[in-house]
Amino acid sequence: MHWKRWTALALFALLLAGCSSGPARRVSEPSARIQQLTVRADGAWSVELRIENFSSVPMRFENLDLAVKVADAETGRLRAQPNLSIGPESADVITVAVTPDAAGKFAAADALASGRSLSYSLSGRIDATPDEAKQRSFDLERNGVLTPAPGLPGVLR
User: Fold this and answer.
1) pLDDT tens across 112-153, in order?
2) What CATH number should be reported for the domain holding residue 119?
3) CA–CA separation, 17 vs 145, rounded Å?
4) Is residue 6 part of a domain?
5) Where does the sequence pass through the membrane (predicted)?
6) Which of 1, 18, 40, 48 is least enclosed, having the fewest CB within 10 Å?
7) Which residues of 60-86 are buried (b: 16+ CB within 10 A; e: fewer)?
8) How many CA atoms lie within 13 A of 109 on its CB side?
9) Considering the entire predicted model, what is its pTM?
10) Taking a C-beta distance cutoff of 8 angstroms, is the pair 68, 77 a contact?
């Protein structure tokens, strides 16, 4: 009878030790999208870029280099070194200045003047470091649509 107690206690301790590993640490590809594009008086854009961390661990976003396409042509590049930590399954916003080419300026001005939407795509790379790991580069391909913000001249959301 005494051995049954020791066997049950050993099995319980083994079961308890198996539960101590904690939740799985998953690193998923991050994403980014334009949350707001403001056309400044000089024709340059101020882009509020939403960076999304879909991982179960915090990530530090160090560099990004994304081509912006509107009207099926590359109109500029979003380049930044945000050095921004984003918690697990969270997002944050950075502001990046862009000087678009003439076609990009025209497409944004046309969308604002006519009240129509503006389709865009982002493609490039985001460098991020998962918590307690080494830096990784993630490729990004994202399509989106911006529409004029009512009451906010020069703003697409």
Assistant:
1) 999 999 999 999 999 999 988 899 999 999 999 999 999 999
2) 2.60.40.1470
3) 50
4) no
5) none
6) 1
7) bbeebbbebbbeeeebbbbebebebeb
8) 12
9) 0.83
10) yes
Asked if residue 137 is part of any domain, the answer here is yes
Is the Cβ–Cβ distance between 107 and 70 less than 8 Å? yes
Q: Collapsing DSSP states into helix, strand and coil, what is residue 124?
A: strand
Task: Tell me the pLDDT tens digit for each residue of 61-114.
Answer: 999 999 999 978 899 999 999 999 999 999 999 999 999 999 999 999 999 999
Helix (H, G, I), strand (E, B) or coil at 71: coil
User: Shortest CA distance to 123 belongs to which of 113, 138, 134, 136?
Assistant: 138
Residue 125 domain boundaries:
25-146
**Total tally of structural domains belonging to the chain:** 1
C-alpha 26/C-alpha 58 separation (Å) is 10
| 153 in any annotated domain | no
Place of tokens 């200045």: 97
